[in-house]
Amino acid sequence: MTILSLNHVSQFYPIKQASWWHRQSQTLRAVDNISLTIEKGETVAIVGESGCGKSTLGRIAALLEKPTEGTVYLDGVDVATVKGQSLKALRKRLGLVFQDPYSALNPRMSVDELVGEPLAAHSVGDDAYQRSQVLHVLDSVGLGEEVLGRYPHEFSGGQRQRICIARALVLEPSLIIADEPLSALDVSVQSQILNLFVRLQKTRDLAFLFISHDMAVVNYVADTVVVMYLGKVVEKAPRSTFFSTPAHPYSQALLAAVPTLGNPAKSGGRRRRERGLQGDVPSPINPPSGCAFHPRCTRATDLCRVAPPQSTAFLGDEAHYVACHFPGGEPYAEPDIQGEAV
Ligand code: ADP
Ligand code: MG
After folding, report:
1. Are 167 and 98 in contact (CB under 8 A)?
2. Which of 122, 272, 104 is nearest to 180 (CA)?
3. Ligand 2 centroid, distance to 271 Cα (angstroms)
4. What percent of the chain has pLDDT over 90?
5. Could you give the residue ranges of the DSSP H alpha helices within 14-145?
């Protein structure tokens, strides 16, 4: 059963640049013609460097922004066709978790108010039901009754993120959208929250849109990996296929740069340089011609400079799509990180 379906979705932001001699209006293509589906119980991970459009795609999926082009279907409903109470009911299907658990929680509200607020806002059940549901979701994120009357400043970052996750779960959504939910946390806490996500996936049959720039995390949680570069999907594959045979040079470079947890010898800048992921993501206002990755690609030819690559099945595998003129090449071993992230 498909929970979320994005069809040819784009998000263009108008950018006004004024200088003393002229004004010009340009377009920033943050998300450019992306189609994607998420099935019940499936975790789709969106990866890519900062500035590739991951959060913009997440905001569109979360119904926080309307796309410039394309359609969004949630639970089979075209969200552009619903308003008012029907849209409110549709929003109940979504739980949102963001990067920063410090700014996400109103400091003047106690935990019972914070977690119970969505139930009250949607008038779900009576007081007794709301209280039992709050306790139930707090228990699922590893927090007990004693936290009910306490306030956000009394908690650590990891505990605050647990409260945010409880809030996201309280309306029993079918899809959780989590945008870099571990990035603001101490490394020691990250694996605990990561394990919490995995446990919730298993016990609640939830679908996840999990946005991360961390390949080790993605290897741990994803069923499907989607790699974004400058607003476009450059590769999409089931997790094991992706980590054993990444086909796009950008994916290969991202994997080569994995700072292998607990193994400093393999990590960091040296490997990154060796594998050639150099420079930064170019501006999406003036993206490079042809394949947008070509200025950073060691395999680029004249063709890549002029012709945008089409997305095609890699080696005939209908589950593995790559947008590259010369996909494949150097195979990579799956990073040795599965056990260490826990
Ligand atoms: P990521 O989450 O992968 O880092 P974002 O989706 O945040 O990427 O941003 C993609 C691009 O869109 C960036 O160049 C960013 O500056 C730009 N962008 C994001 N939101 C806006 C906005 N509201 N107005 C203008 N530009 C934006
Ligand atoms: Mg982001």
Report:
1. no
2. 104
3. 24
4. 82
5. 54-61, 84-91, 111-121, 127-140
Could you tell me the distance, in angstroms and rounded to a whole number, from the CA of residue 57 to the centre of ligand 1?
10
The ligand minimizing its distance to the Cα of 14 is 1
Q: Whose CA is nearest to atom 16 of ligand 1?
A: 51
Q: What is the pLDDT of residue 17?
A: 74
Other C-beta atoms closer than 10 Å to the C-beta of 71 total 15
What pLDDT is recorded for position 332?
47
Name the nearest CA neighbour of 61 among 100, 6, 1.
6
Q: Is the Cβ atom of 62 under 6 angstroms away from ligand 1?
A: no
CB-based contact 72:60 (threshold 8 Å)? yes
What are the chain's domains? 2-12+29-93+173-245+311-323 (3.40.50.300)
> What pLDDT score does 256 carry?
86
The finding on whether 51 has its CB within 6 A of some atom of ligand 1 is yes
Alpha helices (H) in the chain, listed in sequence order: 54-61, 84-91, 111-121, 127-140, 157-169, 187-204, 215-221, 239-244, 249-256, 269-275, 302-306
User: Residue 105: what pLDDT?
Assistant: 96
Beta-carbon-side half-sphere exposure of residue 99 (alpha carbons within 13 Å): 11
Give residue 288 CA to ligand 1 midpoint distance, Å.
17
- The parts of the chain modelled with pLDDT lower than 50 are 261-274, 332-342
Question: Letter for the amino acid at 29?
Answer: R
Q: Indicate whether residue 116 lines ligand 1 (CB < 6 A).
A: no
Q: How far apart are CA 220 and CA 198, in angstroms?
A: 8
42-98 pLDDT, tens digit each: 999 999 999 999 999 999 999 999 999 999 999 999 999 999 999 999 999 999 999
Residue 186 CA to residue 160 CA, distance in Å, equals 12
Q: Hey, what are 289's tokens?
A: 């011609």
- What is the pTM for the complete model shown? 0.91
